[in-house]
Write a structure and sequence with these properties.
The chain is of the alpha+beta class and 345 residues long. It has 2 domains: 231 residues, 3-Layer(aba) Sandwich (Rossmann fold); 107 residues, OB fold (Dihydrolipoamide Acetyltransferase, E2P) (Beta Barrel), CATH 2.40.50.140. Helices cover 23% and strands 35% of the residues. The chain has a 6-stranded mixed beta sheet with strand order 7-8-9-3-10-11, sandwiched between helices. The longest helix is centred in the middle third of the chain and has 17 residues. Bound molecules: adenosine-5'-triphosphate and magnesium ion (MG). InterPro entries: AAA+_ATPase, ABC_SmlMolc_Importer, ABC_transporter-like_ATP-bd, ABC_transporter-like_CS, Mo/tungstate-bd_C_term_dom, P-loop_NTPase. Its EC number is 7.6.2.9. This is ABC-type quaternary amine transporter.
């Protein structure tokens, strides 16, 4: 295990709520783990505590087998062997690429070779003598990562590293950074509030909500098996309906669902989470709706559908359909449910 955080809590002076509470985090060698959650949930605080820029109120931190916090122990950031990559790159503006990435290191032949190899891996060869101001945002962020990797830290901590970049560059850089981390067998804790980013880059995701861990799991586990309504809403952008179990059926205001093995829950209230691909346009479907809005996303359309209940109530659902689907705002449409895209909580 590279990182072990045990029962970490931190309350900033003068604030009502702890920024983080009872965090237990373990990260294995070579893993990419994301801390995912909305603004203010404690992501940066957690990262800063692990790096040593913030002191927790209680708990223990062990990095690569060495205790760096707890029971009277406090190791300062410069002796923790962690690399940091921030959203604003934080490169030295007056130093060129090679001087930025070797700053503070002894220029041996091995080190020069390592710099050369890493620059090549990050597709930055040929840019050694450029100043940061002569590079694109994506290039600057790759330089920042290479600078962190030059020191061969036990772990790289990244705080929203792509948030200053536009959407298409962000997607491209995600793939490149993941590939660099995997090829160099680097362990990484990665902070983001973007669920898609977390799902694509991570081996495991830690979902944080108001300073507490909601769920830890692989991207598939978090997406397909959310353990709470918060995770369902935040990670899969699921639509939520209340339902009542009756035999092997769940009745909601808008439709009923046949489900296996719920007899024991007879009469019980549940939440039905229908992910964006869970409601499919189907000419033989029994669910009636009206398309309110359609957004083209390249590979798919994202639509808002107004559903009508038999009693005349309405609710809006967010759905995703393939681009082959004939769909446009204003039309009436019937739908069926894809059971693989449903979670009952
Ligand atoms: N130096 C500080 N002093 C007082 N309160 C702070 C300080 N830094 C953060 N906080 C508070 O602690 C909580 C967690 O903040 P943190 O910066 O860790 O959130 P975050 O998840 O990184 O959010 P974002 O996505 O907006 O960056 C917030 O309520 C924030 O206002
Ligand atoms: Mg933050």
């Amino acid at each position: 295990m590279i990182i072990q955080c045990k029962n970490i809590s931190k309350k900033y002076p003068g604030t009502a709520q702890p920024a983080v509470q009872n965090l237990n985090i373990t990260i294995n060698e070579g893993e990419i783990v994301s801390l995912l959650g909305p603004s203010g949930c404690g992501k940066s605080t957690t990262l800063r505590i692990i790096a040593g820029f913030e002191v927790p109120d209680e708990g223990e931190i062990i990095l690569a087998g060495k205790q760096v916090y707890g029971k009277g122990i406090w190791v300062p950031p410069e002796h923790r062997d962690v690399g940091m990559v921030f959203q604003d790159y934080a490169l030295f503006p007056h130093l060129n690429v090679i001087k930025n990435i070797t700053f503070g290191l002894k220029r041996t032949r091995d080190l020069n070779q390592r710099a050369k190899d890493l620059l090549k891996l990050a597709n930055l060869d040929g840019l050694e003598s450029k100043l940061p101001s002569e590079l694109s945002g994506g290039q600057q962020q790759r330089v920042a990562l290479i600078r962190a990797l030059m020191r061969q830290p036990c772990i790289v901590l990244m705080d929203e590293p792509f948030s200053n970049l536009d959407a298409s560059l962000r997607e491209q850089l995600r793939v490149e950074i993941k590939s660099i981390l995997k090829q160099t067998e680097t362990t990484c804790l990665f902070v983001t509030h973007n669920q898609e980013e977390a799902l694509t880059i991570s081996d495991r995701i830690i979902v944080l909500n108001q300073g507490k861990i909601e769920q830890i799991g692989t991207p598939e586990e978090i997406y397909f098996h959310p353990k709470s309504l918060f995770v369902a809403k935040f990670v899969s952008q699921g639509n939520i309906l209340e339902g009542i179990c009756s035999g092997n059926t769940i009745k909601t205001e808008y439709f009923s669902l046949k489900v296996n093995n719920i007899h024991k829950n007879n009469g019980k209230k549940v939440n039905v989470i229908i992910r964006p691909r869970g409601l499919k346009p189907d000419p033989n479907g029994l669910i009636k709706g009206k398309i309110e809005d359609v957004q083209f996303k390249g590979e798919s359309y994202e639509c808002i559908v107004k559903l009508f209940s038999p009693q005349g109530a309405t609710t809006n659902f967010k759905i995703t359909v393939d681009v082959q689907t004939k769909i446009k705002p204003g039309i009436q449409q019937t739908f069926s449910i894809d059971e693989n895209q449903i979670t009952i909580i």
